[in-house]
Amino acid sequence: METATRNEGKNQAKMAKPSGATVIIWRDLAQEGYTYAEIARKYPDFTVNQIRHYCLGNTGSRLPGPIQKSGRWQGSNVWLRGEKSPHAAMNTAQALEVLEDWDEEKGRWKHSAAHWAKTLGVSPSAIQQLRRGDTWRHLKHPNQRNNREKKG
Fold first, then answer.
1. Which residues contact 123 (CB under 8 A, 6 or more apart)?
2. How far is it, in rounded angstroms, from Cα 10 to Cα 16?
């Protein structure tokens, strides 16, 4: 029970309701081109999702300030690619190191995803997604499976 109470306290701290003046500032920043993650870094008491909801008008729709259009990044937020993403588990150098591990002669990876996961402190699925080209696609690395398939 003690752990649940402690976690609830953390969640409540992150879920504080912003003042109207704060929301107006967020909307102005978003209008200037700041990402919701960048705004959240300036306002650490609030989550990215809270900021997005207020900027899109899903919450606080009666407050003044420019309302953002949904999908303003057209499916690909170039400012949050790779290590700039708040969800990134590795940096660009590490991602490239994993992708350079391809053995061209044998047509397979030199080391397993589990090996890289343990080495870099990430999950094996993060390595597999990188290798397939599901993540870090912007690198356009020739050893990502999607790019290898296009070559052949």
1. 89, 117
2. 11
